TrEMBL record:
Residues 28-198 form the Helicase ATP-binding domain. Keywords: ATP-binding, DNA damage, DNA repair, DNA-binding, Helicase, Hydrolase, Isomerase, Ligase, Nucleotide-binding. This is Ligase-associated DNA damage response DEXH box helicase. It comes from Sphingobium limneticum. GO terms for molecular function: ATP binding; ATP hydrolysis activity; DNA binding; helicase activity; ligase activity. Pfam families: DEAD, DEAD_assoc, Helicase_C, WHD_Lhr. PROSITE patterns: HELICASE_ATP_BIND_1, HELICASE_CTER. It comes from the Bacteria. Residues 239-382 form the Helicase C-terminal domain.
């Protein structure tokens, strides 16, 4: 029998001239059957309402005073936004259903009250849910919980936050076996993989897949610059005037940038050509929460004509007045592009409008590939991996705070979480003993003895102070050491990382929050500034760069191998590729093209591998080390998402010897262990696992103090316990997140079988974008920029000469 809406909800739909969509009724049917469900539906299709519809219907039919539904979001702001949107229909139907949020920003008195008198629907984040489970009354609070809704599941399922959430859902399922799990997303490539992630015990058949109705095809265009597509750069700033013209012609425009630094740069470029003085603003994760909320409110009220933003606004934005999205630089993946396109119009029956601004010629190919992928309905693949042990350690400690446990029972519960389904008893025992004493190299220190095992085998927290310590320090997101940016009156603008702040002196100026700021003074925690009209620099932020997805890379490779498709490209891009074909070669799909040539007293090796910036950076480090051992006198390397250039004083005549498979066994391990990569990864896992505290009661450690503490412990463990659980976890992070060793391995494997080595007498057309990067890393002065521009023009002239 088909699901039926309560009459009051039917009347609400009818009063607005709406009807429930098919996928909304399918979600209601899954709810009434008690089935878990995964909804994949385009932005604007009413996903959030579809997720909550079974809960609203059940609360209308079966009123309760207990917590009924838990909604988990990857972003605090998304929970706040959903609460606002959910309250509107509840109030319009006059329903006695309470909805509240619980995040890190929720006042402590409200948090305490929520545990005693919870709302019917609680909106939270993975970290806040984990903390709720650390209280002894958690079993009582969640005893009657009917549904967990995971929104934007693609944003964190494959990451450590997804590990934590999956473990928390396993605990909730243990408290109430009848609990129903629901996940929502607009951009899932492998539906079955997400069904397995969502299901208890990974039982895919228990999760009903619900596919949303297709919306209007998006209207997406690539902006062709006035003049020629640039040879280099990745910001798209050359198109500032054209972007401003698009903003002037529309009601509200979202301008997306791939990094915080680029967002600050693009805002300044747009402001400098904002002749009409239109209200535009900036939004990214390093700005203060007050600044972000102010901008979000202005956007919701229709007071802004444009907002320059980063991934901080990729998810959950529901601003109906946005009529265009502009992507500055290449989108790096079709799923990310689709997510951002969906921010425009936010209605299923209206085509979203978007414009891509490629930063250079390679990025033009990538933008075209992304457009084709969106039109073909192709999504980026998601890399599911085993659950992280540092996250498991945090979770186990949190559950111990709620009460004693037996290892065998907790192991079974943990194994029911799909990321940990293959966890062995031996690995689990290592986690327990790590929490018990820090490992044998640290066992002499009482501050690491957080768990105690009683004579009957039961585990419990060793001292109440460790419970407080856990709740103060739990969390998966590890911020980089940072200083608060403040005006002299104490008003906080946001944060910059210590590494950038260390380069500044009083009197220096930088752009932040859309303003030019001059440094007044600096101490261990604050950077005091004042507004200035002086020339300023753009801040830099660390972190892993987004790499072009493998599926987009495959499409770009296909473009290079299909001259018959080049008529779709601008004339200068066609000319570039045709000259490359004439003077050198174009790599075929699966082939690794390597060029070597001399240029201005140096010898260059260019590797066109299309494996992304992170993998190329790692390979550059390895190749220069191997060239050093072969006496080739390397000087350095540069890379982008598409290729790697290594240069030195002697020519490389046998590139195959540099790419042999043992490079990952020898040079890779040696390089990672000697570099700061492993220490950085160790810092993160030490904080997540609870070994190192971020803050004490009433006092937060500075980033420098945390780094100093983790460096000391790292050195001790490397020397006395190299097989320590956290060193293994750090290695896993360094390989996957920092060096992209999976794509690096694919590259090395491909090299031995498919390398095409072309020896040239001068630079090739395809190599120009890379060589232009050399010398640009720290350019600050206009004169130096002009000199580099002249050098680039000479380089282009050489490369594009026919003879």
């Amino acid at each position: 029998m088909p699901a039926a809406l309560p009459a009051i909800i039917e009347s609400w739909f009818a009063a607005r001239g709406w009807r429930p969509r098919r996928h909304q009724m399918d979600m209601l049917a899954a709810g009434e059957s008690g089935d878990h469900a995964l909804l994949v539906a385009p932005t604007g299709a009413g996903k959030t309402l579809a997720g909550f519809l079974p809960s609203l219907a059940d609360l209308i039919r079966n009123p309760t005073d207990l917590l009924h539904t838990l909604y988990v979001s990857p972003l605090k702001a998304l929970a706040v936004d959903v609460r606002r949107n959910l309250l509107t229909p509840i109030e319009e139907m006059s329903l006695s259903i309470s909805v509240e949020t619980r995040t890190g920003d929720t006042p402590s008195d409200r948090k305490a009250r929520q545990r005693v008198r919870p709302p019917h629907i609680l909106l939270t984040t993975p970290e806040s849910l984990s903390l709720l489970l650390s209280y002894p009354d958690a079993a009582l609070l969640f005893s009657d919980l009917k549904t967990v809704i995971v929104d934007e599941v693609h944003a964190f399922a494959t990451q450590k936050r997804g590990d934590l959430l999956n473990l928390s859902m396993a605990r909730l399922q243990a408290i109430n076996p009848a609990l129903r799990r629901v996940a929502l997303s607009a951009t899932v490539a492998d539906v079955d993989a997400y069904r397995a992630w969502l299901a208890p015990d990974g039982d895919i058949d228990t999760v009903t897949p619900v596919m949303g109705e297709a919306g209007a095809e998006p209207n997406v265009a690539i902006l062709i610059p006035e003049g020629r597509v640039p040879w280099s750069g990745h910001s798209g700033k050359y198109a500032a005037k054209q972007v401003m013209a698009e903003i002037e012609a529309r009601q509200t425009t979202l301008v997306f940038c791939n990094t915080r630094g680029l967002a600050e740069l693009i805002f300044q470029e747009l402001w400098s050509v904002n002749d009409a003085n239109l209200p535009i603003a900036i939004h990214h994760g390093s700005l203060s929460i007050e600044a972000r909320r102010k901008v979000e409110s202005a956007m919701a009220a229709g007071k802004l004509r444009a907002l320059v933003a980063t991934a901080s606004l990729d998810l959950g934005v529901d601003w109906g007045n946005v009529d265009c999205v502009i992507q500055m630089g290449a989108p790096k993946g079709s799923s990310r592009l689709l997510q951002r396109i969906g921010r425009a119009n936010h209605r299923l029956d209206m085509a979203s409008e978007a414009i891509l601004i490629p930063g250079n010629r390679f990025e033009y190919l990538e933008a075209r590939a992304a457009l084709d992928a969106v039109e073909a309905g192709e999504r980026d693949a998601d890399d599911f991996r085993p659950g992280s042990l540092d996250v498991l350690a945090q979770h186990v400690m949190g559950l111990a705070c709620a009460g004693p446990f037996r290892a065998e029972e907790l192991l079974a519960e943990v194994q029911s979480a799909t990321p940990y389904s293959a966890l062995t008893r031996e690995a689990f025992d290592h986690v327990l003993h790590f929490i018990e004493g820090g490992g044998y190299a640290l066992r002499a220190y009482d501050r690491f003895k957080r768990l105690t095992q009683d004579a009957d085998g039961t585990w419990r927290v060793s001292h109440p102070r460790f419970i407080q310590q856990h709740r103060l320090n739990a969390g998966i997101i590890v911020d980089q050491p940072a200083l608060a940016v403040r005006f002299a009156n104490g008003r906080k603008l946001g944060t910059v990382e210590e590494g950038f702040a260390a380069q500044l002196r009083p009197g220096d100026s930088f752009f932040f929050s859309g303003m030019a700021l001059e440094v007044v003074r600096m101490d261990t925690s604050d950077l005091t500034v004042r507004a200035t009209s002086k020339q300023a620099r753009i801040p830099s932020w660390g972190g892993t760069r987004m790499a072009m997805s493998t599926r987009l890379a495959d499409r770009v490779r296909a473009f290079l191998a299909e001259p018959g498709a080049w008529h779709r490209f601008p004339e200068d891009v066609r000319e570039w590729l045709e000259m490359q074909k004439l003077r050198s070669a174009l790599p075929q799909p699966g082939q690794l093209l390597v060029e070597t040539f001399p240029h201005e007293g140096r010898h260059y090796l260019i590797c066109y591998s299309f494996e992304g910036w992170n993998a190329h950076q790692s390979l550059g480090m390895l190749l220069t080390r191997r060239m050093e051992s072969q006496g080739l006198m390397p000087l350095g390397f540069v890379s982008n998402d598409y290729a790697l250039a290594v240069y030195g004083l002697k020519p490389v005549t046998d590139p195959a010897s540099l790419f042999s498979a043992d490079i990952l066994d020898h040079e890779f391990v040696d390089w990672v262990e000697q570099s700061s990569l492993l220490k950085r990864a160790f810092r993160d896992v030490a904080v997540i696992s609870g070994l190192i505290e971020r803050q004490h009661p009433g006092k937060r450690k500075t980033g420098r103090q945390v780094t100093f503490s983790t460096d000391l412990i790292y050195d001790v463990l490397r020397k006395y316990q190299p097989d320590h659980l956290l060193l293994k976890a750090a290695w896993a992070d360094a390989r996957a997140r920092m060096t992209d060793v999976g794509r690096l391995g694919d590259l090395i494997d491909r090299a031995s079988q498919t390398m095409l080595h072309v020896t040239l007498d001068r630079v090739s057309p395809l190599a120009v974008p890379l060589l232009i990067l050399i010398g640009r890393e720290h350019v600050a002065q206009t004169a130096a920029e002009d000199a580099l521009l002249m050098e680039a023009e000479a380089l282009v002239a050489q490369a594009m000469r026919v003879d």
